[in-house]
Amino acid sequence: xxxxxxxxxxxxxxxxxxxxxxxxxxxxxxxxxxxxxxxxxxxxxxxxxxxxxxxxxxxxxxxx
Length: 64
Prior knowledge:
Layout: H1 10-24, H2 33-63
Helix pairs in contact: 1-2
């Protein structure tokens, strides 16, 4: 049986991060500054979540 891909697989993280990056770098004057800050915060939180997932998987592997 084929193993199911992790819901937070690199492909998923990468697509989400790239999309947020494109929004953040769009420099579109229609985007309000508060929205820009929220997108920047979302990008930072996504990266933080990815790092946490990696750390926990490493720790779990060391115990296993």
